[in-house]
Amino acid sequence: MLFSTGATAGVRFQRRGLMLVLSSPSGAGKTTISRRLLELEPELVMSVSVTTRPPRPGEVDGVDYFFVDGATFDRMVEQREFLEHAVVYGHRYGTPRKAVEQALAAGRDVLFDIDWQGAQQLREAAADDVVTVFILAPSLAVLEERLRRRAQDSEDVVRYRLAQVAADVTHWAEYEYVIVNAELEASVAAVRAILAAERLKRRRQPYLSEFVQQFRVPLAEPPRSEAG
To answer: Which H/E stretch holds residue 51?
Structure first.
Protein backbone atom coordinates (compact mmCIF):
# COMPACT_ATOMS: atom_id res chain seq x y z
CA MET A 1 0.00 0.00 0.00
CA LEU A 2 1.11 3.51 -0.71
CA PHE A 3 0.06 4.55 2.78
CA SER A 4 1.73 1.87 4.87
CA THR A 5 5.04 1.94 6.65
CA GLY A 6 7.99 0.13 5.15
CA ALA A 7 11.57 0.69 4.01
CA THR A 8 13.15 1.28 0.61
CA ALA A 9 16.71 2.40 -0.01
CA GLY A 10 17.15 2.68 3.77
CA VAL A 11 14.24 5.13 4.12
CA ARG A 12 11.37 4.35 6.48
CA PHE A 13 8.00 5.10 4.88
CA GLN A 14 5.83 6.50 7.64
CA ARG A 15 3.57 9.35 6.77
CA ARG A 16 2.00 11.67 9.32
CA GLY A 17 -1.61 10.97 10.16
CA LEU A 18 -4.42 13.43 9.52
CA MET A 19 -7.56 14.56 11.32
CA LEU A 20 -10.68 13.85 9.25
CA VAL A 21 -13.51 16.05 10.50
CA LEU A 22 -17.14 15.28 9.61
CA SER A 23 -19.73 17.88 10.59
CA SER A 24 -23.41 18.24 9.79
CA PRO A 25 -26.74 19.32 11.20
CA SER A 26 -28.19 16.66 13.48
CA GLY A 27 -29.79 13.93 11.39
CA ALA A 28 -27.82 14.47 8.17
CA GLY A 29 -26.04 11.16 8.61
CA LYS A 30 -22.47 11.90 9.69
CA THR A 31 -22.52 9.33 12.50
CA THR A 32 -23.74 6.57 10.17
CA ILE A 33 -21.08 7.53 7.62
CA SER A 34 -18.45 7.54 10.37
CA ARG A 35 -19.32 4.00 11.47
CA ARG A 36 -19.14 2.71 7.90
CA LEU A 37 -15.76 4.39 7.35
CA LEU A 38 -14.34 2.72 10.45
CA GLU A 39 -15.43 -0.66 9.09
CA LEU A 40 -13.70 -0.07 5.74
CA GLU A 41 -10.57 1.89 6.70
CA PRO A 42 -8.19 -0.06 8.97
CA GLU A 43 -5.83 2.92 9.36
CA LEU A 44 -8.65 5.14 10.64
CA VAL A 45 -9.46 5.43 14.36
CA MET A 46 -12.30 7.29 16.03
CA SER A 47 -11.67 10.20 18.33
CA VAL A 48 -13.80 9.47 21.39
CA SER A 49 -15.16 12.74 22.76
CA VAL A 50 -15.78 13.68 26.37
CA THR A 51 -19.30 14.91 27.04
CA THR A 52 -21.56 16.05 29.83
CA ARG A 53 -24.57 14.64 27.94
CA PRO A 54 -26.32 11.64 29.54
CA PRO A 55 -25.81 8.34 27.68
CA ARG A 56 -28.45 7.35 25.16
CA PRO A 57 -29.79 3.77 25.16
CA GLY A 58 -27.04 1.39 24.04
CA GLU A 59 -24.17 3.86 24.35
CA VAL A 60 -21.08 2.60 26.18
CA ASP A 61 -18.77 4.81 28.24
CA GLY A 62 -15.29 4.91 26.73
CA VAL A 63 -16.53 3.57 23.38
CA ASP A 64 -19.17 6.03 22.17
CA TYR A 65 -18.18 8.88 24.53
CA PHE A 66 -16.48 9.48 27.83
CA PHE A 67 -19.40 10.60 29.98
CA VAL A 68 -18.39 13.04 32.74
CA ASP A 69 -20.01 15.60 35.01
CA GLY A 70 -19.64 19.35 34.68
CA ALA A 71 -16.94 19.66 37.35
CA THR A 72 -14.74 17.05 35.64
CA PHE A 73 -15.19 18.79 32.30
CA ASP A 74 -14.20 22.14 33.84
CA ARG A 75 -11.05 20.59 35.30
CA MET A 76 -10.08 19.16 31.92
CA VAL A 77 -10.54 22.56 30.28
CA GLU A 78 -8.38 24.24 32.93
CA GLN A 79 -5.62 21.65 32.47
CA ARG A 80 -5.70 22.09 28.66
CA GLU A 81 -6.55 18.44 28.08
CA PHE A 82 -8.77 19.25 25.08
CA LEU A 83 -7.82 20.04 21.50
CA GLU A 84 -11.24 21.63 21.18
CA HIS A 85 -14.43 21.90 23.19
CA ALA A 86 -17.85 23.41 22.62
CA VAL A 87 -21.46 23.52 23.74
CA VAL A 88 -23.74 21.62 21.35
CA TYR A 89 -27.51 21.35 21.85
CA GLY A 90 -27.12 22.36 25.48
CA HIS A 91 -24.38 19.88 26.38
CA ARG A 92 -20.59 20.19 26.45
CA TYR A 93 -18.25 18.17 24.26
CA GLY A 94 -14.46 18.04 24.03
CA THR A 95 -11.70 16.17 22.17
CA PRO A 96 -8.93 14.70 24.38
CA ARG A 97 -5.58 16.01 23.16
CA LYS A 98 -3.06 13.29 24.12
CA ALA A 99 -4.59 10.32 22.27
CA VAL A 100 -4.99 12.30 19.05
CA GLU A 101 -1.42 13.60 19.03
CA GLN A 102 -0.04 10.09 19.64
CA ALA A 103 -2.09 8.65 16.77
CA LEU A 104 -0.98 11.32 14.29
CA ALA A 105 2.68 10.83 15.16
CA ALA A 106 2.28 7.08 14.59
CA GLY A 107 0.80 7.63 11.12
CA ARG A 108 -2.81 6.86 12.09
CA ASP A 109 -5.72 8.94 10.82
CA VAL A 110 -8.23 10.18 13.39
CA LEU A 111 -11.92 10.60 12.60
CA PHE A 112 -13.93 13.37 14.28
CA ASP A 113 -17.72 13.53 14.46
CA ILE A 114 -17.98 17.11 15.71
CA ASP A 115 -19.87 20.34 15.01
CA TRP A 116 -18.68 23.52 13.27
CA GLN A 117 -17.44 25.05 16.54
CA GLY A 118 -15.09 22.14 17.13
CA ALA A 119 -13.95 22.18 13.50
CA GLN A 120 -13.03 25.87 13.80
CA GLN A 121 -10.96 25.20 16.91
CA LEU A 122 -9.15 22.25 15.32
CA ARG A 123 -8.23 24.37 12.29
CA GLU A 124 -6.82 27.01 14.62
CA ALA A 125 -4.88 24.44 16.65
CA ALA A 126 -3.49 22.26 13.82
CA ALA A 127 -4.50 23.50 10.37
CA ASP A 128 -1.98 21.37 8.45
CA ASP A 129 -3.35 18.16 9.97
CA VAL A 130 -7.07 18.88 9.50
CA VAL A 131 -9.32 17.83 6.60
CA THR A 132 -12.92 19.07 6.92
CA VAL A 133 -16.06 17.61 5.32
CA PHE A 134 -19.58 18.99 5.75
CA ILE A 135 -22.50 16.56 5.33
CA LEU A 136 -25.89 17.79 4.14
CA ALA A 137 -29.20 15.92 4.00
CA PRO A 138 -30.90 15.95 0.58
CA SER A 139 -33.81 18.00 1.99
CA LEU A 140 -35.25 19.37 5.21
CA ALA A 141 -38.07 16.82 5.01
CA VAL A 142 -35.58 13.95 4.88
CA LEU A 143 -33.64 15.46 7.78
CA GLU A 144 -36.77 15.62 9.93
CA GLU A 145 -37.76 12.07 8.99
CA ARG A 146 -34.31 10.77 9.99
CA LEU A 147 -34.46 12.53 13.35
CA ARG A 148 -37.86 11.05 14.13
CA ARG A 149 -37.00 7.57 12.83
CA ARG A 150 -34.03 7.08 15.15
CA ALA A 151 -36.36 7.54 18.16
CA GLN A 152 -33.54 8.48 20.53
CA ASP A 153 -34.83 11.88 21.58
CA SER A 154 -38.04 13.37 22.91
CA GLU A 155 -40.32 15.48 20.71
CA ASP A 156 -39.02 18.65 22.38
CA VAL A 157 -35.42 17.67 21.59
CA VAL A 158 -36.32 16.87 17.97
CA ARG A 159 -37.98 20.27 17.57
CA TYR A 160 -34.97 21.98 19.15
CA ARG A 161 -32.57 20.21 16.80
CA LEU A 162 -34.67 21.14 13.78
CA ALA A 163 -34.69 24.76 14.92
CA GLN A 164 -30.87 24.69 14.99
CA VAL A 165 -30.52 23.40 11.42
CA ALA A 166 -30.56 26.84 9.78
CA ALA A 167 -27.79 28.10 12.07
CA ASP A 168 -25.65 24.98 11.54
CA VAL A 169 -25.99 24.98 7.75
CA THR A 170 -24.70 28.55 7.47
CA HIS A 171 -21.20 27.17 8.20
CA TRP A 172 -21.04 24.83 5.20
CA ALA A 173 -18.78 27.21 3.24
CA GLU A 174 -16.07 27.00 5.93
CA TYR A 175 -15.38 23.37 4.95
CA GLU A 176 -13.01 22.08 2.27
CA TYR A 177 -15.46 19.44 1.03
CA VAL A 178 -19.27 19.23 1.03
CA ILE A 179 -21.29 16.05 0.45
CA VAL A 180 -25.06 15.75 0.02
CA ASN A 181 -25.89 12.47 1.75
CA ALA A 182 -28.70 11.17 -0.46
CA GLU A 183 -27.37 7.59 -0.54
CA LEU A 184 -25.16 6.17 2.19
CA GLU A 185 -22.71 4.06 0.21
CA ALA A 186 -22.14 6.82 -2.36
CA SER A 187 -21.42 9.27 0.46
CA VAL A 188 -19.03 6.82 2.13
CA ALA A 189 -17.23 6.30 -1.20
CA ALA A 190 -16.87 10.06 -1.61
CA VAL A 191 -15.33 10.47 1.85
CA ARG A 192 -12.95 7.57 1.17
CA ALA A 193 -11.83 9.26 -2.06
CA ILE A 194 -11.13 12.45 -0.10
CA LEU A 195 -9.19 10.47 2.49
CA ALA A 196 -7.08 8.71 -0.15
CA ALA A 197 -6.15 11.98 -1.85
CA GLU A 198 -5.35 13.79 1.39
CA ARG A 199 -3.07 10.97 2.56
CA LEU A 200 -0.91 11.49 -0.53
CA LYS A 201 -0.34 15.20 -0.03
CA ARG A 202 3.35 16.01 0.10
CA ARG A 203 3.32 17.50 3.59
CA ARG A 204 1.99 14.22 5.00
CA GLN A 205 4.89 12.22 3.53
CA PRO A 206 7.91 13.63 5.41
CA TYR A 207 10.11 10.72 4.27
CA LEU A 208 10.06 11.90 0.62
CA SER A 209 12.90 14.41 1.04
CA GLU A 210 15.24 11.62 2.07
CA PHE A 211 13.81 9.11 -0.39
CA VAL A 212 14.38 11.24 -3.53
CA GLN A 213 18.07 11.66 -2.70
CA GLN A 214 18.76 8.29 -4.34
CA PHE A 215 17.77 9.74 -7.71
CA ARG A 216 20.22 12.65 -7.55
CA VAL A 217 23.11 11.03 -9.41
CA PRO A 218 25.90 13.16 -10.89
CA LEU A 219 25.19 14.44 -14.36
CA ALA A 220 27.01 12.48 -17.07
CA GLU A 221 28.43 13.81 -20.29
CA PRO A 222 25.99 13.35 -23.18
CA PRO A 223 26.93 10.52 -25.53
CA ARG A 224 29.03 11.57 -28.49
CA SER A 225 27.56 11.17 -31.92
CA GLU A 226 29.18 8.43 -33.98
CA ALA A 227 28.24 10.14 -37.23
CA GLY A 228 30.99 11.94 -39.18
So the answer is: strand 50-51
